[in-house]
Amino acid sequence: MGYLIGIDGGGTKTTGVLADRDGRVLARATGGPGNYLKVGREAVRRAFAQVIGSLRRAAGLGHGAPVDGLCAGLAGADRPRDRKILMALFRDLVDTPVILLESDARITLAGAIEGHPGLIVIAGTGSVAMGVNARGEYVRAGGWGHIVGDEGSGYDIGRRAMALALQSYDGRIPGSRLEEAVQQALQLRNMPDLVTRVYARGLPADQVAALYPAVIEAAARGDAAARALLTSAGEVLCDTAMAVIRKLGMPRREAVLVALSGGVFKVRGHVYRAFRRALRRQRPHARVIEPRHPPEVGAVALVRARLEGRPLEEVF
Fold first, then answer.
1. 3-class state of residue 199 by DSSP
2. How far out from the chain centre does Cα 25 lie?
3. Which of 13, 121, 130, 185 is the most exposed place for a label (fewest CB within 10 A)?
């Protein structure tokens, strides 16, 4: 009997599952960061080796147990140079005839809507939307990174919160609780120290995104600037979703499934509500749902569909 492995290689951690050929999950494991562009090739190799080894041990399998297929969702998997590097890495770690490398959005979409027409909107440190129509055509929007894109993401919210805090300090906008919130979250002595922190020492994207809870707290305490910022984030994420829907040619009256994923949406607050309001105005028949399975299970489904030559929705 052969086995299947699904891996979700994220910027902060790697998660994986091992399943039998019927798709039943036998083991789960977690390891270090899975984005080699951020942490380097060797660190990612160690993370993947750790997860694959843990999966085998948890399922009671030796290294000789056959793996019929592996699917990994990874940042960079859709870029030829990165794909070549990642493929070589997995071939060195797993003896299997089938290795599928997909984008992280692709496996998240597969797990979220089980292969049916619809889309996933992901808003974590970054943001991206991907969808598929009844003809099996895939389209994505966003996901261009924190410097030129990722609107509505945790990073985008954190960056804009810092800007608003400085505007409040200058008196360019009415006094905002974001001054205090940013100062406390980054442990600054005063607001001018933010400039030193950002430009001299640097702030990694995940640390900027970590300001999101501070913005939520300021909004909960009635701060108008924080509330407007979070509402704007929800609306721009809806714009990204609508771009996917339009490019897929989905009829206006279609009850399109829209799954929401990522830390920004986990808080059912201003961003979530603003997204739903904006979507309702433009697509009143759309159905906002929770992802039905995690990304790594979506990865298993993708490789199983490939091996069995069946449509994705049939393997769930």
1. helix
2. 22
3. 13
CA atoms lying within 13 Å on the CB side of residue 13: 7
- Comparing 227 with 315, which gets the higher pLDDT? 227
- Percentage helix, strand, coil, to 5, in the chain? 50, 20, 35
CA pair distance 274, 279, nearest whole angstrom: 8
Spatial CB neighbours of 196, under 8 Å, sequence gap ≥ 6 = none
What are the tens digits of pLDDT across the range 223-232? 999 999 999 9
Structure tokens at 22: 């019927």
Domains belonging to the chain, first-starting first, are 3-114+293-315 (3.30.420.40), 123-289 (3.30.420.40)
pLDDT higher than 90, residue 216: yes
Compute the half-sphere exposure of residue 98: CA atoms within 13 Å on the CB side of its CA.
22
Residue range 123-143: mean pLDDT, rounded: 92
| 120 within 8 A of 259, measured Cβ to Cβ | yes
How do strand 25-31 and strand 14-20 relate by DSSP bridges? Answer: antiparallel
Phi/psi zone of residue 162: left (φ > 0), alpha (ψ -120 to 50 degrees), beta?
A: alpha
Tens of pLDDT, residues 232-254: 999 999 999 999 999 999 988 88
20 beta partners:
3
User: What residues does 14 pair with on adjacent strands?
Assistant: 9, 31
- Give the pLDDT band of residue 63 (cuts 50, 70, 90): low
Give the C-alpha separation, 191 to 196, whole Å. 10
Question: pLDDT tens digit string along 3-36?
Answer: 999 999 887 789 999 999 988 999 999 988 887 7
> Is the C-alpha dihedral spanning 116, 121, 126, 128 positive or negative?
positive
Phi then psi dihedrals of residue 308, to 5 deg:
-95, -5
Q: Which residue has the tokens 């399109």?
A: 256
